[in-house]
Amino acid sequence: MSAAHNPAADRAAPGLFVVMGVSGCGKTTVAQGLADHFGWPFQEGDDLHPPANVAKMHSGTPLDDSDRAPWLRICHEWLRDHVATGGVLTCSALKRKYRDTLRSGLNVTFVYLETSERTIAERLKHRIGHFMPPSLLPSQLATLEPPGPDENVVTVDSAGTPEIVMAKLIASLKSKAG
Questions:
Q1: Which of 28, 38, 52, 161 counts the highest number of beta carbons within 10 A?
Q2: Where are the domains of the chain?
């Protein structure tokens, strides 16, 4: 899934990226590819959820803002701790106020993965071992506030193979930088 690049040049300018979108859009795959591409640390945001959040989602109950607040603070701390090294974090970041928490005092680039509800639902049906059931997709879509152009965002259609999505993302990042 790697794209041709100059690792030494990429590492010269560490950045902070949050790969965002609803469950099943491909956040983990794309974030791991992006971290590998730049040689930066990767953090699966789901692994930072407090146990009560995981239990709630596992039972099929959507999280509310009060559930997400401590998790978002932990995600922000992870980003803050990686300013010098760069880093790539996955986080649904469904609402603007969640993204505001994540970027507070930091220069964060959001990578918004979007695709059709049908594609996401199909992926969720085949996903094994994740605590978030497909039944929560409608609540995530209802909560989603797509990022605006003022939010330092790169939007990528996540339909297609991981290689295709990564190629589109890298091309978008290069055109944004250039």
A1: 38
A2: 13-177
pTM over 0.90: no
The helix or strand, by DSSP H or E, that contains position 79, with its residue range, turns out to be: helix 65-81
Homologous superfamily of domain range 13-177: P-loop containing nucleotide triphosphate hydrolases (3.40.50.300)
Nearest residue to 88 (alpha-carbon basis) of 46, 13, 31, 49: 31
Phi, psi at 146, each rounded to 5°: -55, 145
Per-residue pLDDT of the chain (178 residues; tens, 9 = 90+): 444 444 443 443 789 999 999 877 888 899 999 999 999 999 999 899 999 988 887 787 878 899 989 999 999 999 999 999 999 999 989 999 999 999 999 999 999 998 876 777 676 666 665 555 556 666 777 788 999 999 999 999 988 888 999 999 999 988 887 6
